[in-house]
Write a structure and sequence with these properties.
alpha/beta, Rossmann fold
Length: about 290
Amino acid sequence: MATEDSQVSTPSPTTSTVISTPFQEKGHKYRELTDEEQSKLNSDKTLVAEFKQAKLEREAQKNWDLFYKRNSTHFFKDRHWTTREFQELTEKEPTDDGVSAGQRVLLEVGCGVGNAVFPLLDENKQLFVHACDFSPRAVQFVKENAAYDPARISAFQCDITKDPLVAQIPECNVHIVTMLFVLSAIHPDKMAAALRNIYEVVRPGGCVLFRDYGLYDHAMLRFSKGHKLAEQFYVRQDGTRAYYFTEEMLSKLFSEAGFEVCQNEYVLRETVNKKEGLCVPRVFVQGKYSKPNI
């Protein structure tokens, strides 16, 4: 599924440069829009026609499959930053004796070709990963990776908006779910169903670790007219789609799905392209949402 560097021809995000500012009418607390940016957003009022939007929804899987057909496994960099951002991914699960390390179960939703999964498996030897993706082609790339070991990873195709995860994973079995730039690719009307589906396989006390596009991210402001599907929801040239979240919307979505909100905040990064002399602001939303101990 979509990733942070998928549509911006700049390197991966660098060191955090989060700066607190008063709330502005032309933005939010971490990203104030310039007059030019605000004018551009205000002038983009026309939405893509309903018949075309329906076609995009019907062909969503095909468009992602074509994306991976064009780009194979070479488009994205491996995500070695995940353990730095999410300490939970390095933790070991104690066994009953309280001494030796047991196996932790992770579900990677929207695994793509494995750019997050394989570095995690290499770093945490006690991890078992269920990896799913909307695109059958992406899943096949994961299975063809030389590092794919069925004893430590199970990859499968899944539309998390409708395919029950419990058909592949025992109920209440997963310690950690990672959702990295995947919910934004789902139609907003189906996001709640996806989160309820995930809730069923998370064990009490388990959590979802989340990062995705935030409102007023540079990628959002680069869309030209004719690409707007709804407020904060856009279609790219290749037919894949992206939603840009507010903290408030994410908190509401996860809470209504049954999760407790532990962390939910904007994260600002600057992406630098030295060759072109560009420095652009990236806005992400990062969160941790836990399943209550019942």
